[in-house]
Amino acid sequence: MGRGYRFFGGTAAVLGAASLVCALLTLLPGLLLPESGWLTGVSVGSAFLFLFAAALWGFSSVSDRRMLWTAFRCLPGKAQTELGMLVAGGVALTAATMLQGLGRPSSPKVEGGRHYAHETAPRGWVEILSRAEYEALVELEQRLSHGISSLVLGIAAALFLSMGELRKR
To answer: With pLDDT > 90 as the criterion, what percentage of the chain qualifies?
Structure first.
């Protein structure tokens, strides 16, 4: 397997694991991640950058897409397990967060010392009365974005390593 495939696959897997850890940190009490959103932006940005690169590289170098699954199955068992756990963790966390967020306001923000969130009902922006509810909404948003990022990065890592396994043969 070429160094490029291992480098990009390994980097995507490490970033995916870091995103999963960030998502799991939001389950602990208190607002542990910064509210500014830079960490979420880096996580989501790197996820879609790696997925775009893997898809572009895969479409240009792999003639038969069905061979990717066969190549993935040829990876060492430990790598398959770790990538599977990363993707499964991202799916489980994303699904649970989406179910938890149904019917709740989203996009919390602070303006003039007051807390606001956007309701999907025709009301639009509504004021949130308690800081605790605001923090819960911020954590929910962070958990969702980091969960999706870990899922996407796990898929990108699996694509890179599968393409590398194909090139080896």
So the answer is: 44
Provide mean pLDDT across the span 148-157. Answer: 95
By CB neighbour count within 10 A (0-12 exposed, 13-18 middle, 19+ buried), where does 80 fall? middle
pLDDT score of 122 more than 70: no
Mean pLDDT in residue range 53-61: 86
**pTM of the full structure:** 0.85
